[in-house]
Amino acid sequence: xxxxAQTEIAIRAKLQQIWGYQNFRPPQGEIVDCLLNQRDALIxxxxxxxxxxxxxxxxxxxxxxxxxxxxxxxxxENQVQELHQRDPAFQRSVALLHSELxxxxxxxxLRSLEQQKLRLLYLSPETLLSQPVWERLCxxxxxxxxxxxxxxHCLSQWGDTFRPAYxxxxxxxxxxxxxxxxxxxxxxxxxxATADSSAQQTIQRILQLxxxxxxxxxxxxxxxxxxxxxxxxxxxxxxxxLQFIQTKPNQSGLVYVRTRRDSEALSAWLTxxxxxxxxxxxxxSPDQRRQIEQAWIGDAIxxxxxxxxxxxxxxKSNVRWVIHFHAPSLLxxxxxxxxxxxxxxxxxxxxxxxxxxxxxxDSEDKQRWQFFETQAQKQQQxxxxxxxxxxxxxxxxxxxxxxxxxxxxxxxxxxSGQLRWQDPFHYSLLPKAAKSLLGExxxxxxxxxxxxxxxxxxxxxxxxxxFGFPDEASDLHCGHCDxxxxxxxxxxxxx
Length: 495
Description:
The chain is 46% helix and 16% strand. The chain is of the alpha/beta class. Strand 3, helix 6 and strand 4 (120-123) form a beta-alpha-beta unit.
């Protein structure tokens, strides 16, 4: 069913009513117009660029439902809570569904869905494709305007590794439309802060975007100084971290590590040093995570020692520094995480600690990257072995019950062009396997991070080039990363 056209006056009035802004920041207005006209879109905007407004506003202006697929419970809860605080009326029309809700809460939201009271529903890919939710979404009289994929880079990072439901999202639109009145339309929009050309192609292909409008803002932040420091031993890594934090008294920050165990151990050590901090990872209970988030946002603790589970969608503008105690495996993760700093436009610092390149004295980084690559290779091998046993057509639930890694294998086969989804639950193996570029793409992505850490050129120039902004990168020397500062100091020394 076609939505009535929204006037620019009505759109801006709603923007001011809910968020207090009189005008959009480019290209927010164009994105809102695109989604109101139910056109597909791929949106790449830096962290803090105002992505959520771009899909929340169209959803709240329309009758019918907009689904927001989001990777993390914390991300969903923060966005929903913020809308509820902006207008109490949204408590009836904006909701979220996830596995950590009580049975009573789930029943209430499913009832609201059945009664068509919701305008925005946040949920994970796995929840979207769960039977109770899917059955209700397929009701012929339930009008669905759009499917929003928030943090869409997770599709290309996780879809063929440990969140296989992501790769089934491309079959959602056509399956839903089969149950809707003739002429119904469902737009799909993918939002992310980081996606290189390969990730963009993956997102468009997997989601089956139809002639999408593409909006791209480069990730460059003139107020964010990037730096890499080589450490020679595990003890030296801790001392370097401590020295850095000592130079930032009472400044809010984040310390990123890669594992839950590192989060717990490093937080305990820093607490012993007298700092107000806490560990944060996916193994904590929902109440524990919310308490830590609120303590950090309210400056009750100075910084959080966290895994990648922390940060997405949490709105804190005065973060002055981010330290990667361990470098992430992927450049896209790095840009996402350093983007938490300096969202208020004031100067901020992002420091990454890196093992010496031989790995003899501190092998942590080298072992981590090798583990990442080894795991990807194992998954490919399992998928290739399972492909020989799978029926030509089948249902994902049955395969997952029969084979421990069945769902992941199907996802990998899809990503490598050897499978298509008939609908989100049924697959067909292709008679002739297409040549797979997935493995090479993943290897290239893993190699980028070490290259970035070792580059002697402007770090922002490297990032802009890696994410597909060669024109902006061509003459860039940011003047505030460690390499630019080193070059400038050397030139002065030569005078």
